[in-house]
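All the exercises in this workshop are built on plain-text protein records. The record below serves as our worked example for the rest of this section.
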Amino acid sequence: MQLPVSRRLGNGLGFLACAALLGYALYAEHVLGLAPCPLCIFQRVAVIVVGVLFLIAALHNPRRIGAFVYAGLLALAALGGIAIAARHIWIQAQPPGTVAACGADLDYMLEILPLKEVVTKVLAGSGECGTVDWTLLGLSMPWWVLISLAVLATYGVIVNVRAATERSGSV
């Protein structure tokens, strides 16, 4: 069975989906006035990494082994973002007052702390990460990021692995 799109086009579409997600995040921040918490910023980084991998895969258009490598890298990057989004969802589900108070913003922490400590503090979560300012169909933004990254990971694996296994004689 032949895929309806080439691997190159499929990866390009994956990149455009990531660009659309980031576009909406910037719209929510700058037009709707929803300031991103540190965990939101980490989720944006994960979407950027997935998008860059899709773009590189589209431009490179590798043969069989390279396609498997891109599929693995896309899945790994998306799983990292899914883990961050899941942590954010867990923090939002905690009863009020059980999450630490709002801390320093991410820019300030990056200036004064080592990167490892910044990551640890951000993943621990704080008050601003527990706030739900936006929902769609009853789901907060981290839920939609988790769902989007799960779909993109699945799509990236299918586009790259399936196309690589269908191409006979490719190395």
